[in-house]
Fold each of these.
Amino acid sequence: MVNIRFVSKILTWCGVAVFALICTSCEEFCEEMNRTAIVVNFFTINADLTVEPLNVTVTIIGIENESTLYPNELFPRTFSQALLPINPMADMMSFSFKNDTLPADTIIFRYIRHTGFISPECGCASFAEIQGEPERTGNTIINLVVTNPSVGVVSYRQGVRNAENIRIYY
């Protein structure tokens, strides 16, 4: 007669061993979430026409979903790079840039979406190509330049500098 308790213990240990084998046999785990965002860097133009990075103090709001993107728990009130998430279900997004004392600027980005493969660990993500010059108001922003129209996956980890898509000059 078979001892049910013994068979149960053997099956349990075999299950644990198989699970451990599966977990350790993976090449890598995907460390990043597959978030695609337009990377904006801020600059100022000095009196001698030299350009230098600028830390801005603005509130950035996604207009379509009425959400405050900056400041937030990850990014302080003053920053020099902003990540503006694209909507994988739409072909345009608009954002409001509001300084405490000056009128807000609105920027509208139009893009073409496509899906791309990242890696076996991370799977696929939505990518985008910015189409033309973004529409904008000219309240406080002096100039806006598309430096790289290819929008890809970004890292939201502290201290990571993502590849630039847009330069905004104040």
Note: Residues 29 and 121 are 6 Å apart (CA to CA).
Amino acid sequence: MMYQKTAESYGLFQVVFADLTDHLACATFLLGKRKTPELTFEGVFRKGFRKILAQFRSELRQFEGKPSLHASLHALEKLCSEVEELAKWRNDRIHARVHLTKEGCMLYDWRTNAVLELRDEEIKKSIDLALRATVSLQSHTRELEGSLKLREELDGLFARMRNRKASTGLGRSEG
């Protein structure tokens, strides 16, 4: 029965979307914890998808103006727009009005009463998008996190150099 196949596909989509949300929360935490040491994973994770996405976008701003990260930032900004649309598609169906018939069920937008499609092909496209977004999120976030670690290491090296110069008297001009 087509109804069963569609319901199974939509259930799988929900699982994949939950995984995407978890990865987005992790990425948000990883990028934000250096800037905001009091940030906790639970504090990020407990927010809804929309708030996590907004916080993630905010964390991306710390990398603006860094040419070496332009490609990753562009990819992540595109990803944010795509998953925002995906979340809207999901939310419309999660919060839909349902009308059961002999042929199956019809979903209606609760605000407009418009029919909401829930076809197997559409769900599979949404699953693919969520999976691609998760992989892209992981790879590009690693690059940004690596940039933060490198910056911390370089800051530490320069701080040690300044401390050595100060303690040995090196670096002072003699005249």
Note: DSSP finds five helices and three strands in the chain.
Amino acid sequence: MGTAAGFVAAAALAIIMQRFRRNATTPQGLSQHELGERRRLFLFCSDAKVLADLAIQRHMSDEHFLRQLRAQPCYEALSPYLSEAFTQKLSRAAENGEGKSKLAHACRDEIERLQHQFRPSSSNEQ
């Protein structure tokens, strides 16, 4: 009888600890689906950031960088979250098609903003 009570107490404690652990790692107000989506977008941010870093290191032209960015799956997933100012820079770069510019630097800054927004452990304050 004492052993059975011990098992029940241990199981109850494990369930309570799991619930507290889940609440501690899940930002308030987010479902598991929403948290999974934020994690996916956070990973896409990492992909775009690596592409921007490579473009900066290789002194890639705006036109080439923009082509590379738009070819990545991360671009389609992140495009609804891009700021209006950055979207305008993208359209101007597509129209001009010249120079080794600041587009990759601007992209890196924009992606860092999005990474902060989608960080799975951050709270839902944005």
Note: The radius of gyration is 22 Å.
Amino acid sequence: MEYPSLDTPTAGAFRFNTDSGQLEIYDGNQWTGILSTSPEMQTGGTRGVFAIGRVGPASVNTIEYLNISTTGNGTDFGDRTVISRRGAAASSRTRGLLAGGYNGSGDTDVIDYITTASTGNATDFGNLLGDARTIAGLSNSTRGVFAGNEVPTQLNVIQYVTIAQTANAVDFGDTSRVGHQTATCSSPTRGLIGGVFGAPGDSNIIDYITIATTGNCADFGDMITSGYGGRGGCSNSTRGLFAGGWDDSASAITKAIDYVTISTLGNSIDFGDLNQGNSSFSGCPSSPTRGVFAGGYAPAKTNIIEYVEIMTTGNATDFGDMANVAAYGSAGSCSNGHGGL
């Protein structure tokens, strides 16, 4: 029998449990087994899932998916339980969560879940702390975290759920600034929340949290340019990317992609460019090697999908098209192979 250390382990620590014969990781609260699975075993490659959010002027509950390891067009997955845009997503290897949003006349606090390896309609998971619009999501293999809010006023709240359970969200802490339209990415340990559209004015600040704990954000660094609204964020376990958005300094939508190393602190560095300026993406899922930027507003609604190789630098390459022409206002995107897993 292996007895526990007298010292509290740090989040992310490993041990070998001699009773179960299993390698375990400490998630900040408890020791949990490491699953011997991968996106390749589940779906033949990392699957990116998009809750479309909006087609033309109308909010919709449509969900699409694609295989990030290949190139091609999006395929129908199923439907959310609610019609929604401007929501957020988080995911583990097996389950994706779709949370909050606006249906064109009102807001929702509903959290849905899907089984990423299958296709079909979403199922009710629980509820956010309150109605939420234009929020952002990130996750590791255990927790889904949702940050920011636009209703009933600009908010800096962070909340979380345990992905493997079904339950309502719990308070996590606060971001450094009040606002919404933030871009997020994560490693298994850290979650990054970059930029904000809010009051007083837009910001290029990047905050970070330790996902396995609770508490307020700490400063990570800054994006290259101030005032990015509607940026897209994605990552593998090492590098986080931020793309597109509204550049206040140029009064225009930007093509810029920049990156950070998640385990360090510091300002973002130039990565390359999208093929077209874009903001308010329909989704930015990722695999261990690729980041995908899909749909959005450029400055008209678009269904174009582009991708980059995360550990290189350079401009984006065409991937295919979404099945729906999606305007700004995604209801969230996730994958079973992103940087937090």
Note: The mean pLDDT is 87.
